[in-house]
Amino acid sequence: MTILNHTLGFPRIGLRRELKKAQESYWAGNSTQEALLATGRELRARHWQQQQAAGVDLLPVGDFAWYDHVLTTSLMLGNVPARHQNKAGNVDLDTLFRIARGRAPTGEPAAAAEMTKWFNTNYHYMVPEFTRGQQFSLSWHQLLDEVDEALALGHKIKPVLLGPVTYLWLGKVKGESFDRLSLLQDILPVYQQVLDALAQRGVEWVQIDEPALVLELPQAWLEAFKSAYAALNGRCKLLLTTYFDSVSHNLDTVRQLPVQGLHVDLIHGRDDIVALNQQLPADWLLSLGVINGRNVWRADLTQWFERLQPLQAQRKQLWIGSSCSLLHSPIDLSVETRLDEEVKSWFAFALQKCAELALLSNALNNNDGTALETWSAPVRARRHSGRVHNAAVGERLAGITAKESQRHSDYQTRAAAQRQRFNLPAWPTTTIGSFPQTHDIRSLRLDFKKGTIDGNHYRTGIAEHIKQAVNEQEQLGLDVLVHGEAERNDMVEYFGEHLEGFVFTQNGWVQSYGSRCVKPPVIIGDVSRPQPITVEWAKYAQSLTDKPVKGMLTGPVTILCWSFPREDVTRETIARQIALALRDEVADLEKAGIGIIQIDEPALREGLPLRQSEWAAYLEWAVEAFRLNAAVAQDDTQIHTHMCYCEFNDIMASIAALDADVITIETSRSDMELLESFEEFAYPNEIGPGVYDIHSPNVPSVEWIEALLLKAARRIPVERLWVNPDCGLKTRGWTETRQALANMVTAAQNLRARI
Ligand code: GLN
Ligand code: ZN
């Protein structure tokens, strides 16, 4: 039996981010909807053609989305919140954009739907909203239209649908509470209609994504799979598709389902394929996700060949595929001109991954793996590359003992020393680090990068911006100042560029949400710090003022989570290496007279594994990495950390274990509700609950800020409260920043006067 290969989905943004540009231009009213539709059509056609040319047997259709594929599913089901519906009562592209962004070229603006992380990736989906008694109907034919489009182009396709159970799982109930699982019976008829329509078009296999199956699901939800798939059976063949982790723990449920195949992620799951093969019905198609859809590394195809060959004889129907959709990987390595050949030979982006699938399926079908050896050679050569291994890093790491991650004294003692050193007023005011990244600042950095100005000009320019930021802060009367981060383009990239062990791509964009893309650095080897990174600018800023200037670092877990990690060592090892490198930065900042140092960890929660049973292990090493980074500080050096909006209640013990002297968090939008977790936990150290939302240009009034602070004081003793915005100010303009901070300082002064 021939082994087929397939991808679970392809990046939709386009190599030059064509979709982003077309979307944004349409939203801004600068181009027509026809132009946007045409860009989408071109991209789909190009991506199918490219995958086919690379040797992919079955092309995914339905992986394209105008904003997000969960949102596409909502539209398909006619699940449009009342506030986003248009007057005509039909669903159109602007309806989709109103749900996603709160506004579109047509229709009335209304609050956008919530967005959240897609499993444990950095992709964000639009959270479906469910209301009691709501109706569903097939309202959006995008999938069928795209199937027609691909068929007209003569492609051999495999439509992709987000499965009904995962869809419900990912959504949220609005208004009167009820069990959203009860809606399953109402959405299944729409799925049936879609599957019927696909069957009519001659589609054989449908990839039905149910990644929720890798989670630890409540029994009722597991049961729901049975009724759902009983209802969907009998139209097209269904490939039940799981990814991001293993499914073995739910295999008893899975094997009873009336589907015709199962896809498992062998990269992020640890499923035993021999056992899986034995336990699954003999006539099922087994699709093995062997090419990592979420990272940039070339696969060791020789190794896969050896692993898969024995299975080939045992399973009637076997496919190989990407572990998950290639949505999470950059598109094409071949356009990278700045990576050296050695490093380039270690990588595979989406198109190269397609080629890997083809190479591997060919080798298996021809029963000959020799062609794979050339492909795998660089993977093997890398194991001995000097670019990867740095003996000094390994030795240092091995020498680390528990005491290195322990501050010298407990919080009480430190707090006393810090009070004496800084003598800050009650309700001390500060900011989170960045100040507006003006056009001037951006072009200065860009000119330097392009080489149009030299290092001296660049540094003079940055110094000017720092001076301006410090002056502004002094005028405003803030208590703890920052240098403003003018030299940083991005909080992770900046550190990556100054650390050994990282490389950067020119076009390695991946979609984060909607039209937003990120270009994560790649961690290729042991991480070390060739020289101090932030010290010069921090020292300069401190020289301009008598107020304390806070040094600003991005923490090890965040740098790890927002990069493509290497895969030959654990995430824990990478985090520890980064922590050690930044530990030296803390020591150097201290030596340079910087008494307050902030280590940002906005991604701490993001790094959590999908299954709660694995949380404890992650949190332990993540917290340890932060502590290793910070604990070199003397008692009278004040360590701050910052986290953006996140749920704290179930990780409170770990937040406390960070043992930062001060934590600043985003709270204004939750009306200080987030502090409840800190109160209940009796969080012992200082907290700066953000008092205004930096995502909005609105200037908060003094009264409003005061009211929020008083609310905070009902939960946390005043002696341990700080006053600061929710997050960094880099996306804001100076005018609103100045006004907002002035009001913030006045609010703090008013409260001081009352003590
Ligand atoms: N120090 C960073 C800034 O102010 C923090 C950003 C973040 O939390 N994402 O920009
Ligand atoms: Zn933040």
From TrEMBL:
Instruction: Give this protein's Gene Ontology molecular function annotations.
Output: 5-methyltetrahydropteroyltriglutamate-homocysteine S-methyltransferase activity; zinc ion binding
Sites where the protein binds Zn(2+) 1: 642, 644, 666, 727
Residue numbers binding L-homocysteine: 432-434, 485, 600
Pathway assignment: Amino-acid biosynthesis; L-methionine biosynthesis via de novo pathway; L-methionine from L-homocysteine (MetE route): step 1/1
Which Pfam families does the record match to this protein? Answer: Meth_synt_1 (PF08267), Meth_synt_2 (PF01717)
The residues that the entry says bind L-methionine are 432-434, 485, 600
Catalysed transformations (reactions): 5-methyltetrahydropteroyltri-L-glutamate + L-homocysteine = tetrahydropteroyltri-L-glutamate + L-methionine
List, alphabetically, the Gene3D superfamilies matched.
3.20.20.210
Residue sites binding 5-methyltetrahydropteroyltri-L-glutamate per the record: 17-20, 117, 122, 516-517, 562, 606
Where does the chain cross the membrane?
A: none
User: What range(s) does the Cobalamin-independent methionine synthase MetE N-terminal domain occupy?
Assistant: 5-314
Q: Where does Zn(2+) bind?
A: 642, 644, 666, 727
Instruction: Recite the UniProt keywords alphabetically.
Output: Amino-acid biosynthesis, Metal-binding, Methionine biosynthesis, Methyltransferase, Repeat, Transferase, Zinc
Q: Which GO terms describe its biological process?
A: L-methionine biosynthetic process; methylation
Cofactor dependency? Zn(2+)
Q: How is the cofactor bound?
A: Binds 2 Zn(2+) ions per subunit. Binds 1 zinc ion per subunit.
Which EC number applies? 2.1.1.14
Q: Which residues form the active site?
A: 695 (proton donor)
Every copy of the Cobalamin-independent methionine synthase MetE C-terminal/archaeal domain together lies at 427-750
HAMAP family, per the entry: Meth_synth (MF_00172)
What this protein is reported to do is described as: Catalyzes the transfer of a methyl group from 5-methyltetrahydrofolate to homocysteine resulting in methionine formation.
Per its UniProt record, what NCBIfam families does this chain match? Answer: met_syn_B12ind (TIGR01371), PRK05222.1 (NF003556)
Indicate the family of this protein: Belongs to the vitamin-B12 independent methionine synthase family.
Q: What is this protein called?
A: 5-methyltetrahydropteroyltriglutamate--homocysteine methyltransferase
